[in-house]
Amino acid sequence: MSLNNRHFPKVLENSTLFRKLFLLRKLFFSKRKSSHYSQFAEDVSITRLFPRNYKGLFVDVGCFHPIKHNNTYALYKRGWRGINVDIDQIKIDGFNLLRRRDTNYVGAVSNHNGEVEYYSAGFYSLVNTLEKDFVTSDKDYRLKKTTAKRLDQFIADSPYRNREIDLLSVDVESHDLEVLKSLDFERYRPKVVVCETQTDCLDDLNKTELFRFLDEHGYTLVNWCGLSLIFRLRNWSIDSFHSISDAA
After folding, report:
1. Which domains does the chain have, with CATH numbers?
2. Residues 64-89: pLDDT tens digits?
3. Backbone angles phi, psi at 83, to 5 degrees
4. Would you call 59 helix, strand, or coil by DSSP?
5. Secondary structure of the chain: what % helix, strand, coil (to 5)?
6. Residue environment code for 100-123, b if the CB has 16+ CB neighbours within 10 A, otherwise e
7. What count of other Cβ atoms lies within 10 Å of the Cβ of residue 14?
8. Three-class HEC string of 80-107
9. CA dist list (Å): 179 to 29, 35, 171
10. Are 31 and 23 in contact (CB under 8 A)?
C-alpha cells in the first residue's frame, strides 16, 4: 500500500519515531531517477543556462524533497547554495538532513505577511495549495493554517540579504504569481525563473497574468518542461559569464 499523498492520524504525524522512519523511507528508499532529479527534467535545461564551474545562488519555493522532483539538487551538487522554503515541516526536516549547507525555512510564501489557510492533500503531498480553485474532488484535501511571509522577507532573514539571485524556482500549485509579486525584482533580479502553468498551449500562455508579469519585468521564455516554464532575463545569457571572465 502506497504511503504517498495520505493523511495519517495526528498521533502518528506528531510522533517523533514515525516522522524519523517516514523520512528514512522517503529520503533513502524511494525511487530516484539517475539522469535528472526534477519531475519533468527541468534541471537538464536549467544547468545548461549556467557555466559548469559556476557556483550561484538559488531560491526554491515549494521545494518538496531535497533530491527527488527537485529543480536545485543538480546545482547543489555543483557547489551552489541557497534558500529552500516549503509549507510542510516534514519536508524541511528532510532538507535539514540532506541539504545542511542550504538555508531551509518552513512557511507559506505569498504577497502579504500573516496567517493563512491552505489545503493539504496529505502528509507529504506534491499538491498542497493556498488556492481554493486548485482543489479537486479526487483528493482528500483538508484545511490547515500556517504563517505566510513575502519572499522578500524570507530572503531578508537569510544570509543572502540584498544578494542577486541566479535561479528562482517556484512550484506552489497555482499560487506562483503571488510568490513572484512578493519579490523585489529590482533588488534581487533573478537571472532565471522557473514557475508552473496549468495552460497547455502557447497562445493561451501569452494571455495569462503570470506570463505578462514576467514579460514586463524583462524575461523571455526559453523552455517549457511538462508544467514548468523556464524564463531568463531578456538581456542576459551564458555568454555574459564569459564576458565577465574575459574582462577580469
Report:
1. 10-247 (3.40.50.150)
2. 999 999 999 999 999 999 999 999 99
3. -115, 130
4. strand
5. 30, 20, 45
6. eebbbbbbbbbeeeeebebbbbbb
7. 10
8. CEEEEEECCHHHHHHHHHHCCCCEEEEC
9. 32, 29, 10
10. no
88: its cell numbers: 510542510
C-alpha distances out from residue 51 to 32, 54, 83, Å: 25, 5, 21
The maximal CA–CA distance of the chain, rounded, in angstroms, is 60
Q: Which three cell numbers stand for residue 102?
A: 542550504
The backbone torsions φ and ψ at residue 221, rounded to the nearest 5 degrees and listed phi first, read -75, 125
Cell 483538508 -> residue: 142
Mind listing the pLDDT tens digit for each residue in 4-49?
667 889 898 899 999 999 999 888 887 665 578 998 999 999 999 9
* CB-based contact 110:178 (threshold 8 Å): yes
The DSSP 8-state label assigned to residue 224 in this structure reads E
Tracing cell 544570509 back to the chain, one arrives at 159
CA separation for the pair 84, 100 (Å, rounded): 11
Whose CA is closest to 176, among 194, 157, 203?
194
3-state secondary structure of 22: helix
Long-range contacts of 158-164 (CB under 8 A, 24+ apart): 158/83, 158/103, 158/105, 159/103, 160/57, 160/82, 160/83, 160/103, 162/187, 163/57, 163/188, 164/57, 164/188, 164/189, 164/190, 164/191
* Closest CA relative to residue 161, chosen from 55, 83, 236: 83
